[in-house]
Amino acid sequence: MAERVAIVTGGLRGLGQAMALGLAEAGHRVLAVGHIADDVAPMEAATAARGIPVGRVLPVVADIRDPAACDALVAAARKQLGGLDILVNNAGLTFTYISPDKFRRPTPQPFWECTDGMVQAVMDTNFVAADRLARRAVPHMLAQGWGRIVNVTTKLDTMNRVGSSPYGPSKAALEMATEIWAKELAGSGVTANIVNPGTGANTPGMAEEARTASREGRMPRLLEPDQMVPPLLFVVSEAADAVNGFRFDANHWEAGLPAAAAARRCARPAGLVLHEPAAWAPATAES
To answer: Taking CA 23 as the corner, what is the angle to CA 19 and CA 29, rounded to the nearest 5 degrees?
Structure first.
C-alpha cells in the first residue's frame, strides 16, 4: 500500500480514533481532527503505545461546522503532511447529544421536541461539514488523479426509526450524497464509498444504558472501534481502485478472508441500503 495522507474527522476518539490509528499503522500520515481539546493527550498516548512514529499522526482541534476551519484543515494536510489523498468523514453528533435520556425515556423523543439549535448543529456536523470538506478535498485529488472519500453513515432502520430525527435525516443525506459523488467521480481515479459499523458501536458517545443492554443480550452486540479498520484499509488501497459508490458494514466483514473476498461478500451499493450484494470486479476475481 502506497503511503498516503488522510484527514479523519472525529478522529480523536471512538471510531475515528481507531480508523486514524489504523491508517497510521498501515503507513499513512493522518490529520486526526476532533472538537475537544482534552482528547489530544489520550490520542497522543494511544499513538505512542502502538509504536507509531512521531509525526505520523497530527492531532488537531477544530470546529468543522466553520467553513474557515475546513479551509485550514485541507491546507494543514497539504502543508504539514505533504498532500491530501484520503478524506474520512466520520465526525457526527449522535443520539446522546440529541436525547441524553434516550434509553431512560418511556417513549422515543419526537421530532417536535428538538430545538432549532439542535437540528442545525446535527445537520451541520453530520452532513454539511462532510460535504464542505469533500468539496475542498476533491479538486486536489482530481489534479493528482487519485483519491478516496470515505463517509460514515448508518443503517436504514436507524435513519428512519421513530425518535431518530434529526440524526437519521442527517445520515440519510450523507448516504445519498455518497451515491451522487460516486457517479460524478466515475472514471476520475477518485472514489466515494461508505464504511459503517453496521450496528451500535462501543464508543464514548454510546450511552451506558446501551452498553448494559448489549451485555445482557437485550440489544445487538456493540461493534468494537478497531473492527472499522479492515474495511477502511481495503477501500483506501490500490486494490479498490475500481470500487466506487459502495457501502461496507464492518459487522459483516469476515476478518478471516482476504480483504478483496471479504469486501465482495459485504458490499452494497451506496444509497440502496437494503440492496443485495453487487460485484464491481470481473468474474475471474477472487470471491
So the answer is: 125
